[in-house]
């Protein structure tokens, strides 16, 4: 049972990593575009950057989400 649980955890981690990489590849051009259009010097990932304070006026999260949701969904590829 322990081996089964370890294998399942490993497979889940692999699938999660693959999906996150796919999402990052799709969202990166949108973030770059928002940054250029708004003349920003930097954009931080609010949840992973160690950022302890940010004025809500500079938070572009909603803009990125709206554009991401409006972007065409890439064709899916068969999974292993």
- Count of individual domains: 1
Number of helices: 2
Which structural class do the helices and strands define?
mainly alpha
Unreliable spans are none
Return the average pLDDT rounded to an integer. 86
Secondary-structure element string? HH
- Give the termini distance in whole angstroms: 24 Å
Radius of gyration from the alpha-carbon trace, in angstroms: 17 Å
> How big a fraction of the residues is strand?
under 5%
The best one-word shape is: flat
DSSP, total strands? 0
The percent of residues in helical segments reads 55-70%
Task: Characterize the largest beta sheet: strand count, sense, and whether it forms a barrel.
Answer: none
Explained architecture:
The protein is mostly helical and 80 residues long. The protein has one domain (2-69). The protein is built from two helices and no strands. The protein has helices at residues 2-37, 61-70. Helix 1 (2-37) packs across helix 2 (61-70). The longest helix is centred in the N-terminal third of the chain and has 36 residues, at 2-37.
Outline of the structure:
Helices cover 57% and strands 0% of the residues. With 80 residues, the protein is mainly alpha-helical. It has one domain.
């Amino acid at each position: 049972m322990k081996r089964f649980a370890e294998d399942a955890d490993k497979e889940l981690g692999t699938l999660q990593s693959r999906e996150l990489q796919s999402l990052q590849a799709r969202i990166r051009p949108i973030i770059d575009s928002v940054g250029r259009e708004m003349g920003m010097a930097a954009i931080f990932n609010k949840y992973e950057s160690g950022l302890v304070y940010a004025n809500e006026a500079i938070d572009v999260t909603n803009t990125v989400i709206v554009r991401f949701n409006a972007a065409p969904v890439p064709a899916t590829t068969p999974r292993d």
